[in-house]
């Protein structure tokens, strides 16, 4: 380390951690302090940590789904087995996602530190909150974001917002992991507000640490990518937690163009009746399974039901676009 870097680190120590008892910190807290000291600026340290985390988690979590899509063995759990994303589609999706990350998420991340400090969120400070505090604050963020997303998502299906913004995300009637943030930059900003706002609002009522928010964003990324994966495994979370949405719930939204607007939980769609078509579809699938004399017969009946939902979804999408003077095609 150079003399200037050493001096800068000492200045950060004096400015941020002058009264900190480092011997009382655990391993994670010590690494947290070291990161902020190394960068020498809370704005740079928070921004870089956030951006690196987001990119590593997003593309790292998407990679297993890319591999699964390439292996025929897993087709038995594919919700729409006749629609497998091609390498070209994966690449086109990656480019759009990166564009949204650069144009929207990167500036937001670098502005987050001043905004967080303005509302009283702790960022560079140690020690971390207790596990209990982090757990209930993360759940609050999930609850807040789910309601925000339900309302904002419904708004994005109105003619003007759909035509100019949300249509990008509905390019694929059979989503895949990478497509979780395949969206117009404006949509990334609108729906991203729900991810940020819960923690910021909470700061007005209680002490919130950035580590809680950081973990919440990681959970949100996993949830978003998995719900767009297009796979429903027997061990998927929706089979363990009854009110969890999951891929099976959200995949219907992309097929039908309507219903199932929430992200993490199913309850807002149930409360507001925006899962009526989905519930009818699930009953039809269950009836077809009970009636089928063989697995092949059931799969054929299920595909016919999917085709019917896709056709109705296309009509619904065209009806919305007709109000804004433009027709569309489902891929």
From TrEMBL:
Its main location: membrane. Residues 139-274 form the Fatty acid hydroxylase domain. Keywords: Membrane, Transmembrane, Transmembrane helix. InterPro entries: Fatty_acid_hydroxylase (IPR006694), Sterol_Desaturase_Related (IPR050307). This is Fatty acid hydroxylase domain-containing protein. It is found in: Membrane. It comes from the Eukaryota. GO terms for biological process: lipid biosynthetic process. It comes from Rhodocollybia butyracea. GO terms for molecular function: iron ion binding; oxidoreductase activity. GO terms for cellular component: membrane. The chain crosses the membrane at residues 33-53, 196-219.
């Amino acid at each position: 380390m150079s003399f200037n870097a050493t001096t800068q680190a000492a200045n950060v120590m004096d400015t941020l951690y002058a009264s900190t008892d480092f011997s009382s910190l655990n391993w994670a807290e010590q690494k947290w302090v070291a990161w902020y000291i190394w960068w020498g600026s809370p704005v740079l340290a928070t921004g870089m940590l956030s951006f690196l985390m987001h990119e590593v988690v997003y593309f790292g979590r998407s990679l297993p789904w890319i591999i699964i899509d390439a292996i025929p063995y897993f087709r038995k759990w594919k919700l729409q087995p006749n629609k497998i994303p091609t390498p070209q589609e994966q690449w086109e999706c990656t480019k759009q996602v990166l564009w949204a990350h650069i144009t929207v998420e990167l500036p937001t991340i670098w502005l987050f530190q001043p905004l967080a400090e303005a509302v009283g969120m702790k960022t560079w400070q140690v020690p971390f909150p207790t596990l209990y505090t982090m757990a209930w604050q993360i759940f609050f963020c999930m609850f807040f974001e789910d309601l925000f997303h339900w309302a904002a998502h419904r708004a994005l299906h109105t003619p003007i917002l759909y035509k100019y913004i949300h249509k990008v995300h509905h390019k694929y009637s059979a989503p895949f992991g990478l497509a979780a943030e395949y969206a117009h930059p404006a949509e990334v900003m609108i729906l991203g507000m729900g991810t940020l706002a819960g923690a910021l609002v909470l700061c007005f009522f209680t002490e919130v640490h950035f580590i809680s928010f950081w973990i919440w964003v990681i959970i949100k990324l996993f949830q978003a990518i998995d719900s767009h994966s297009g796979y429903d495994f027997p061990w998927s979370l929706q089979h363990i937690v009854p009110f969890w949405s999951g891929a099976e719930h959200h995949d219907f939204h992309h097929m039908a163009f309507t219903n199932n607007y929430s992200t993490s939980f199913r309850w807002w769609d149930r409360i507001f009746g925006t899962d009526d078509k989905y519930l009818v579809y699930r009953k039809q699938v269950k009836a077809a399974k009970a009636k089928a004399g063989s697995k092949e017969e059931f799969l054929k009946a299920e595909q016919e039901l999917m085709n019917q939902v896709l056709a109705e979804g296309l009509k619904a999408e065209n009806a919305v676009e007709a109000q804004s003077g433009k027709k569309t095609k489902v891929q």
